[in-house]
Amino acid sequence: MEKKTIGKFISALRRANGMTQKELGEKLFVSDKTVSRWECDECTPELSLIPSIAEIFGITTDELLRGERNNPDREAATSEDVASKQKAKSDKQFKLMLHSRKKKFTNLSFISIGLIIVGLIAAMICNLGFSKGLLGFCLASVFFVAATICQICFTVSFRLLIDEEEAEHAEEIKKANTDMVFSSVKIFFGILLTFAFCLPIAVLTLSYFNSHYGLVIDSWILFGSLFAAVAFLLAFCVYKIFVLKALINKEIVWLDEQVVSRANTESKLLGKICIVFTVVLAIIMLATYIITSSVSESTFIERERFDDPDRFIAYMQSEYDAWYDEGYGNLPPSEVPTHEPNKKWAEIDGKKYYYNPILYESINILQHENGEWEIVVTTDEADQNGQAMYSILSAGLLSLHAINLAVCVVWYLVKTKKRKTA
User: Fold this and answer.
1) What are the distances in angstroms from CA 97 to CA 37, 252, 253?
2) Are 376 and 364 spatial neighbours (Cβ–Cβ below 8 Å)?
3) Do residues 184 and 147 lie in contact, with contact meaning Cβ atoms separated by under 8 Å?
4) Which of the 8 DSSP states describes residue 240?
5) Rounded-to-integer distance, Cα 244 and Cα 251, Å
6) Cα diameter, the chain
7) 354 pairs with which residues across the strands?
8) CA neighbor of 195 nearest in space, from 145, 154, 149
9) Tens-digit pLDDT profile for the chain (422 aa)?
10) Given this structure, which CATH class describes domain 6-70?
11) How far is CA 166 from CA 90, 133, 179, in A?
12) Where are the strands (E) in 360-417, listed by range?
């Protein structure tokens, strides 16, 4: 059997590819005599030329050094087995890497959540402990801004890019990126709601209560919850109508076509509802302005008017007598005084009369130049009834806003539920 050598193998490969010794030498930057010496087994190629020769003829360096090709069937089986093992190993490594990044992102996100909690605690300590509401809000805002910046950095840092090497894992990368973005969105909502909850201790203490001492706990919870609810509704509308669409269009998140279609439908529905809500809100506010401009508390207060001092005197003294006879304003027997309580004397038109000042909100006595009298008496009971009626009117106008909002929310929930069940 003829011995297999590198030289004879190179000669056979050269002839099979239709190349001359000179052409092969030019490709390897050697002379044709050098190639001839290889093929005559007078010498062997330098080790540095072995990879180049193997590449020219499309074989492996192992095949060139052995002087023969490998068994095709065996090589194919070996290659497939190696490729399968390498792919399995690569998939496992990728999944471990992806799991590790997700875990790190989740753990770092707790830093943002912790900053939110610390900000809220700082606001509570300053407002309730030291009566420094504005200072508490400022400190809390610093922590909220820090939480926002941290969460943005975490999201950007752990976001995976899809390159050619990771193309086979594109779907897994898209899902991981989408999950991270939506997790960050939830945290951003938490930051916004906590900020809105703390806002009253700064806004109301300065504008409404005109004080730097903050709010008591019950007022803070009441107004904070109201501010947070309004902030959530506004943020939800902005997110659904604008932000989510931008995230999808810029491929920051990837969703199924069905989910994208439903999101677009909900966005259009929410936009329509917001327009209706805004129009109705403007109408209610205009009506409120017109009503409050023409109506005040005094509109609902019933006053006693007199143009004769004698009638006025009789009225004032009869009011006192009735109060006295009824038991001093329904006082318990043990508390009834032995003398006539709250009996005050006054004079009008040279005539003295007695009355009880605690029964009246105001007594206006005016005598015109022509001698005519104009006396207006407002009892405390009539004043309280007028204020109550005005409060009912104000509450009714305010309830229209609540009804408008409730109708829009129910409209949105019913429509979206129908589409999900369809």
Assistant:
1) 53, 21, 20
2) yes
3) no
4) I
5) 11
6) 155
7) 345
8) 145
9) 456 688 888 888 888 887 888 888 888 878 888 888 888 888 888 887 888 888 888 788 888 787 777 655 544 444 455 456 556 656 777 788 888 889 999 999 999 999 999 999 999 999 999 888 889 999 999 999 999 999 999 999 988 877 655 567 788 889 999 999 999 999 999 999 999 999 999 888 776 555 567 788 998 999 999 999 999 999 999 999 999 999 999 989 999 888 899 899 999 999 999 999 999 999 999 999 999 899 988 899 999 999 999 999 999 999 988 888 776 655 555 655 556 778 899 999 999 999 999 899 999 999 998 989 999 999 999 999 999 999 999 999 999 999 999 999 999 999 988 877 76
10) mainly alpha
11) 10, 52, 18
12) 360-367, 373-379
Pair of tokens at residue 60: 């492996």
H or E stretch including 122?
helix 72-124
> Which tokens go with 252?
């920051």
Residues 6+ apart with CB under 8 A from 235: 189, 192
Query: What number of other Cβ atoms are within 10 A of residue 287's Cβ?
Result: 12
Backbone angles phi, psi at 343, to 5 degrees: -90, 115
**Whether the Cβ atoms of residue 297 and residue 386 lie closer than 8 Å to each other:** yes
- Exposed / middle / buried, residue 74 (Cβ in 10 Å: 0-12, 13-18, 19+): exposed
Q: What is the pTM of this model?
A: 0.68
Give the burial class of 125: count Cβ atoms within 10 A of its Cβ; 0-12 exposed, 13-18 middle, 19 or more buried.
middle
- Structure tokens given for 73: 């069937």
Tokens 């006879």: give the residue.
325
d(Cα 418, Cα 409) in Å, to the nearest integer? Answer: 14
Domain spans of the chain, in order of start: 6-70, 98-255, 270-422
Q: What share of the chain is helix, strand, coil (3-state, %, to 5)?
A: 75, 5, 20
Could you give the 3-state DSSP secondary structure of residue 379? strand
- CB contact burial 201-210 (16+ within 10 A = b; e otherwise): bbbbbeeeee
The SS3 of residue 352 is strand
Continuous H helices in 257-379: 257-294, 309-325
363 φ, ψ to 5°? Answer: -135, 110
